């Protein structure tokens, strides 16, 4: 495992930036171990909800975690608004960095991640391949 600390800058889209991390480092598997920072708007898909929930204003990232594959990231995040209300869910495009995001990624050089259909969940789920297989 190789760790990769990142700092995202104001105006960057959180999901889009993390989607490009693997290719930028020649990797095909990774995990976001943790992330903190601030957003100036966010889009989450809440548990079981078909549509996005949009948040506006100053928002703090309390936690960020997920998997990174060449097929795209699968990220979950807990957020707090300016009144301290907390909401969490699946990260969608449209989470724009306000001041910073400090993120620690683990690159897994011995693995390749993919996303494939899962009959039990009905979603594309993580498929783990070992490079020595």
Automatic annotation (TrEMBL):
GO terms for molecular function: DNA binding. Transmembrane segments: none annotated. It comes from the Bacteria. Pfam families: PCC (PF03479). Residues 1-129 form the PPC domain. Keywords: DNA-binding. InterPro entries: PPC_dom. This is DNA-binding protein. The lineage of its organism: Bacteria, Pseudomonadati, Pseudomonadota, Betaproteobacteria, Burkholderiales.
